[in-house]
UniProtKB/TrEMBL annotation:
Descriptive protein name: UTP6 small subunit processome component
Ranges for domain U3 small nucleolar RNA-associated protein 6 homolog C-terminal: 176-446
A Pfam family the protein falls into: UTP6_C
Matches recorded under Gene3D superfamilies: Tetratricopeptide repeat domain
Organism: Myotis myotis (Greater mouse-eared bat)
Similarity comment: Belongs to the UTP6 family.
Signal peptide: none
InterPro entries membership: HAT, TPR-like_helical_dom_sf, Utp6, UTP6_C
Amino acid sequence: MLAIHSNKPALWIMAAKWEMEDRLSSESARQLFLRALRFHPQSAKLYQEYFRMELMHAEKLGKEKEEFEKAKMDLGNLDYPEEILTGELARIIYKNSINIIKGAEFHVSLLSIAQLFDFAKNLQKEIYDDLQALHTDDPLTWDYVARRELEIQPQPGEEPPATKQARALEMGRREERCCAVYEEAVQTLPTEAMWKCYISFCLERFAKKTSNRSLRGQRLERTMTAFKKAQELKLLPEFLYKQWIELLRQHDFLKEALQVAVAGIELFRDSVMMWQMKLQVLIDSKSPDIASLFKEGFASLKPQVCLPLWISWAEWCEGAKSQEDTEAIYKKAILAVTGADSVTLKEKYLDWAYRSGGNKKARAVFKSLQESRPFSVAFFRKVIQFEKEQESCKMANLREYYERALREFGSVDSDLWMDYIKEELNHPLGRPENCGQIYWRAMKMLQGESAEAFVAKHAMHQAGHL
C-alpha cells in the first residue's frame, strides 16, 4: 500500500501507529516516520505525529522501568536508554521540525502535544520559551500565553478554593491575569488580528455559565471595554461589530447598539449586514420610521447585495403591518432582485402566501411567478406539498405543477419524474394509464447518469408492486 500510495502522509501515520500499537515495535514505527519524511519533508502532520510517538514511547518505557524497580526485579539486559526516557529523541524532532516548518501555529501545536505528558516538563518549558522568543510578532503566541493564565494550578501547599464564592473569586483573578497579558499584547501588536483574539477570549468567558453575579458583571464590562477600545482604534472587523451589537441588544442597551450600528455603517458603507443590524435595533426600539429607514438602506447599497434587506423588510412587515402591505413588499422585491438571488425570494414569497392565505393564496402566487425564471426544484416541491396537504387534493393541480417543474428540470431531476408517476398511480383521481407515456417522456429528456438513476428507481418501484 505504501509503495503505491507513498504520496499520502495519513497512510504513513496509520502504518507507524500499527507498528507501535499492534506490533509493539517502536523501532519500526520510527523507521516508517523517517521514510515518510523523506517523501514529505514539509508535512506538519507527520512531524506532529512522529513527535507524539516518541513521547508516548518514552512515557511507556518510563512506566515499565518504574514497575520493574518497584517489584525489585533484575532489569538484566533490558534496555532503557536515558535519551529516550528523558524525551531527548522527541526534543531532536522538535528542534528539526521548527527549522523546517515556520510559524507560531505549528509551534503551538507541538507545545499542546508535549503538555499531554507529565514527564516532559523541561521540554514543555523549552518549547514555551522558544515560542515567546521566536514568535513575538504573531497574535497566536500572545493568545496562547494569555490563555495559559487560566490553567495555572495552585502552588504546592496552597489550598484550592472550597466554596462557590471563593472559586468564582479565583476565576475572576485568573481572567484578570489573562486580560493583563492581552492588554500588553494589543500595545505591542496593535493589529486587527490581535484585537480579534482578545475580544474572542472575552466573549468566550462571558458565554460561560456562572451563578455569581459579580463575575458575570465583570465579564460583561470587560467585553464591552475591549469592543470600545478596538473601535476607537478602528481595528474592529465587520463581523465583530455584528457580535457587539447583538450583545448590546441582548442586554437592552438599545441606544448604545444604535450608536455602534451607525458607526459600523460609516466604516463599512457597502455592508448589507450592518444595515440589517441597524434596522434590527430600530425594530427592537419600536422606532416609528422603519419603512423609510429600509428605503434609506436600499438607496445606500448596491442592488445586487440587497436580498437580505428585502427579506428582513418583508418579515418585519408580516409582524407589524397588514397582509396587503407585506405582499406589496414581496412584489417590489421580485422586481428588484434578479438572477440567482431571486430564487430564494420566490421560495420565501410562496411560504408567506401559504402561511397567510392558505393554499388558495399560494396557488395565486405560484401562477403569478410561474414564468419568472430562474427557479429552484424546492419552489415546485413546496407548491406540490401545499396541494397534497389539502383535504380535497386536486390531481389536476398536481399535474399542472409537475408539468411546469419538468419544463425546468426534466432533463436533470429523475426524482421529479418518479414522483409524478407515483402520483398518477396512488392518487384517487390519478390515471395509471398515463404512467407509460410519462416513463417514455422521461427517458427522452433525462441525460446520462440521471437517465440511469431513473431506470434503476423505476425498476425498484415496479418490483415493489409485483
